[in-house]
Sequence to fold (353 residues):
Amino acid sequence: MAEETLLLELQFPDAQRVFNRLYYQRGGRYAEDFTTATSRGPRLAYAEAKDFYSYLCELHKAGELPDVIRVLDLGCGNGNGTAFFLDKLKELDEKGKTGFFGRVECTLADFSPQMLEDAKKSRHLRTYRDITSFMHTDVETLSLPGDGYLLVRSNELFDDLPSQMLVFKGDHFNDVRLAMHLPQRIPLHMKDGRRLARQDFARMARHLERGLSAVDGSFVKHLELEVIRRKAIPDLTSILLLLDDFVKMPEGMTVPVPLAAGATVLQLLPYLHKRARIDAFDYGFNSLGELKKLQPAIFRTPGALTTFVNFPYLVRIAKLAGFRRAKVEPQAAFMGKKGKEADEHFYHLRIER
Fold:
C-alpha cells in the first residue's frame, strides 16, 4: 500500500473504538454489510425468553421474584431482538396466566444515537412503548438509570468492544496495531457536508469525544487495514489471568484479550438484582485448540471491526468479581439446534450473581 494512503495508525483497541464509532453512526445501514443471529430470525430471542420465563417461575416459587422485573438490553441496535424477546415472554406469560409480564420494565441501551433512533422508530417495539425506555450510554463508561436489573442481555456486543491483541515472542510480548489506509480518491466529510482534511480527521480520531460524532462514517467500508506488531508491556491482570494459557501456546500466536468486555462485566455488578443473570451471545472461542484453528483471522471486517471473543478470560473475570457462576455453551445447544443447523464459534455466556 502506498504511503500516501495512510490515514492513521492506532493500537488495536483504539482502532476498534474509532472504526466502530464511525461505522455505527450510519444507523440502520449497518445491516447492509453483515447479519447477526437476531437479524436472521427470532429463534435466539425466543429461546432466551423461554429460558428467562422458566427462571421467573423458579424465583416466584421461591418467593424471590422482585415486584418490578427489570431487563436491560445492552447494545440494543435497532431493537428487533428486544421486540422478539418481549413477544415470546408475553406469550408465555399469557399462556401460563402468571401475571409476570405486567411487572416488566425494559431499558434499551446503545452507544450510537443513530441506532437508538432506529429502535425508537421501530413499529415492532411500538407495541411495548409503555414498558420500554431508551438510554444512550457507552459500556466503557457505563451509566444506567436505577438498579435492580434481573436480566442483562446482549447479542454480538462483546466482539465489537476494544480488545488488546497479544503475541508472545519468547522473552517478550508484542501487541497488534492497525494502520488504516484510505485511497486518496475517497474524500472525508463532516455530517453537514463540509470537506474534512485528513490531518484534521487524524487529530479528531485521537480525541474520540471531540467531534468524531460529527464525521460522516460512510468511508469506513473503503478502509484497508494493515497489521503491525510492536513490542508491548501488557496489562498485569491480563498476564495473570492468561499465564497458564501462554505456557501452552506456540510462539507467535495472537491472543485477543477482551479488556472492555471484562470491564463491562465488572461495571454491571452494582446495577444488578441479587439474583440477576447476564446473558451474552457472541462469536468467539472457548478453548486453546479452537483459538489455534482461528489463526490468523482472529479479527474481521466488513461491517464493524470485530474480534473473536475470549470466553475463558471473561469466565475468569466474572469469578474474580464474585459472581456465583459463569459458564459457556454453544448457542446451538441453548436453542436446541442440532447437526448442520449449528453455527460454529457462536456461544452463549451466562453469568449469575
